[in-house]
Specification:
The protein has 10 helices and no strands. By secondary structure, the chain is mostly helical. The protein has 2 domains: about 55 residues, Arc Repressor Mutant, subunit A (Orthogonal Bundle); about 160 residues. Helix 1 runs antiparallel to helix 2, helix 1 packs across helix 4 and helix 1 runs parallel beside helix 7. The longest helix has 26 residues. The radius of gyration is 21 Å and the shape is elongated. The termini are far apart. It comes from Blautia liquoris. Keywords: DNA-binding, Transcription, Transcription regulation. Pfam families: TetR_N.
Length: about 220
């Protein structure tokens, strides 16, 4: 059963999300949030020390679900790589469908993280996403190298650039507020382009030359 205090806090969070969506972080007004939630600004400060803390709480569910999903996907692919099972286009499509399912369940929160996160003074969601992908991909590559006994060295700077492009492309449906159906179609196209590159890298890890990958 929800207590009165929890009900008030949740009402403040709902109104805060609405205000951040309409005004952005910088121009969002605690007074307007308080008025919409039918509380005083003092009541907001009892739960949240400042506007940044309120924004963090208003997007916390999305961040928690994101971290949980990405950790699970990483563990699964690294475990498979350790057994020599590569991550192919079909796996990529399935993971993207799962990813967008999570995104659209908490769409407004992810939109806020992406469009307003930089304004809070914290690290951007895009930056954090790239960092997670980079750590996961390097772990995946490490597992494949160990399995194949490969001494191929991946250019980590180039990998970072590629992952930035990949993550940015993944988040375009959020930026443009695309429908879930259109986002899935977008994901299917992305899986074709990016999976070809990953499969080429795996050939290098198996000992093939870079020249052999050039048509």
């Amino acid at each position: 059963m929800q207590t009165k205090a929890n009900a008030t806090k949740n009402r403040i969070l709902d109104c805060a999300r609405s205000e951040f969506l309409s005004a952005g972080f910088a121009k969002a007004s605690l007074r307007r949030i308080a008025a919409q939630a039918e509380v005083t600004t003092g009541a907001i400060y009892r739960y949240f020390p400042d506007k940044r803390a309120l924004f963090t709480a208003a997007t916390e569910e999305a961040v928690t679900q994101f971290e949980k999903l990405m950790a699970g996907m990483s563990d699964e692919t690294v475990l498979a790589a350790g057994e020599g099972v590569s991550f192919g286009p079909r796996d990529s499509r399935e993971n993207m469908a799962t990813f967008y399912g999570m995104i659209y369940e908490y769409f407004d929160q992810f939109y806020l993280l992406l469009m307003c996160g930089d304004e809070t003074g914290g690290r951007s969601f895009l930056h954090e996403f790239v960092k997670v992908e980079e750590e996961s991909t390097l772990a995946y590559i490490g597992a494949l190298k160990k399995h194949y006994g490969s001494d191929y060295e991946v250019d980590e700077v180039a990998l970072h650039f590629l992952l930035e492009a990949y993550v940015s492309a993944l988040l375009e449906p959020v930026r443009h507020r695309m429908s879930r159906k259109d986002a899935i179609l977008h994901a299917q196209n992305l899986s074709v382009y990016f999976s070809v590159g990953w499969l080429g890298m795996e050939r290098l890890l198996r000992g093939e030359s870079e020249e052999s990958l050039i048509p």
